[in-house]
Amino acid sequence: MKREVWLVSAIALVNSLSVTILIPTLYPYSRQFGLSDLETSFLFSIFSIAQFFATPVIGQLSDRWGRRPLLVVSLAGTVLANLMAGMATAAGWLFLARFLDGITGGNNSVVQAVIADVTDAENRARGFSLFGAAFSVGFVLGPVVSLGAQQISLGAAFLISAAIAGVALILTLFCLPETRGQRPSQRRRFDLGLGQLITGLTIPKVGILLFINFLIGTTFTIFTFAFQPYFINVLNQNSESLTILFMIYGTLGVLMQTLGVPRLIKKLNLLLILFLALLIRSLAFLAMPIWPNLIYFVSIILFFSIFNSLVQPVINTLISLNANAQQQGMVMGLNSSYLSISNGIGPVLAGLLIRQSHPASYGYPLYLAGGCTLLVLLVAMKTRTKYAPS
Is pLDDT of 380 > 80? Predict the structure, then answer.
């Protein structure tokens, strides 16, 4: 594997740390500002909605100006946003910080474009798997750091996240070479790629994958928001135990992506892996709220984490294999952008179903996520001839 792949995977690791430190703390931190569950779902969503508009611009500009400068701008925005959030004194500042982080934070598409720049079709799945594993390592180390930060305060997690994003910024500035190849055809000066949000869905083979991944992302983010209030309010746990669950979840994901994905790719078709992972994901979602018991719930989560880690590496590989070399940055930007808007929709759908006065309602979004994931699986199977790599 080329040096650039290892380097951007290291950047992805550091960058994921800055994100995963916040995941277990954002929900309880928002409650310190007096936000309801529904208002907190909007806090989760504002970051993702901002990313929806920003990510295709970042991907398009990386095709035009290069991968490195766009990574620098994006990481600098993350540093500033997390400093603002950590020092926030009112909910308005917290919302503003999350918006700023979202509008500058679409750098995963650029990292994926770097991998596409320097790998051939044969090694691309391995490259994306390494990227996914590096990001998953953040799901192991991030909660550990978060757990320590929570001993100071929940706001301290944001300040530590800003410092770690600063490390990724330094790595990009001083270690990452430019990987973009031949300059694409000139576009109008102010054509930043926003039009691609619509026309991207018409790209042969790629458009249908973007749509499927949008649906996958929506169902998954219904879960990622809903299981936190369920874990805390129904199972009577706290932010520290939530953080430990994230840590174990991330560890299993790393093991699967580093050891399982390469072996499965050699033995099974990419589409078969995707369909199997979606089936298990949907059944796990449906099973989670059946019995409000801590050991039962954690067991389902851990089983789910093993197979869930297969989905994004396979989808990213399929998208990259179906896009030409000049489209990699733009296509990966669109992919991240559709995932971002799905991340904005999912928490709000979950928040609308939850009623704090009715504890049983905390399980409703999990049932919704499971049923919708089954429908997504049917769509993916029905349309497979439109995106199967040749």
Answer: yes
